[in-house]
Write a structure and sequence with these properties.
There is one protein chain. The protein is α/β, with parallel strands linked by helices. It folds into two domains: 3-14 and 89-214, Rossmann fold (3-Layer(aba) Sandwich); 17-86, de novo design (two linked rop proteins), CATH 1.20.1440.100. 49% of the residues lie in helices and 19% in strands. The protein has a seven-stranded mixed sheet with strand order 4-3-2-1-5-6-7. The protein is globular, with a radius of gyration of 17 Å. The two termini are 28 Å apart.
Amino acid sequence: MSLAIFDLDNTLIGGDSDHAWGEFLCEQGIVDAEEYRRANDYFYEQYKNGGLDIYEFLRFALKPLATLAPEQLNTLHQQFMQEKIEPILLPKAEELLAKHKEQGDFLLIITATNHFVTSPIAERLGVDAIIATDPEQVDGRYTGEVSGTPCFQDGKVTRLNKWLEAQDFSLEGSYFYSDSHNDLPLLELVTHPVAVNPDEILEEHASNKLWPILDLR
């Protein structure tokens, strides 16, 4: 059994779930729409350019979780799944997951987007496990802070290695599919790196390294 590892946003789904959640919060009147959209778009551009301050972003992104009760959050997320995630699911991505499952591979999503947003998406996609940025919780409520190492850039390698220590897996024969140059630290580690609808920086890197480039759109 090999590890088949997948980035989530703009890889297995045709959009960014973190940014979409922010848009959804604006539409629902949970946050000040004008101010939040401006910041949400600013951080998204930083991410795409490779200059995101992950801790600054997480202070912004996790704050709304602390303002709502768990029951409210769960209800909102069910609506979010129907309105924002279902329309951007990619049939070719689901076929790729099914192919790896048929091969007997273990399907793992690793994503910088926080666990609250992404865990139900991973469940919907039928993967075996997910590693995501963990929002801190105290007494069953989110605090607005991050817990542990954010699952971003080199942090993905750190989090994956920690996960591997507790599992009966290695990176021998492993795959990693990603769209983003932010994931180069992990792409360089696996046996089979694959660029999926890559950004310009990753596309150039993949071409130079003769990595496969896949179109799931």
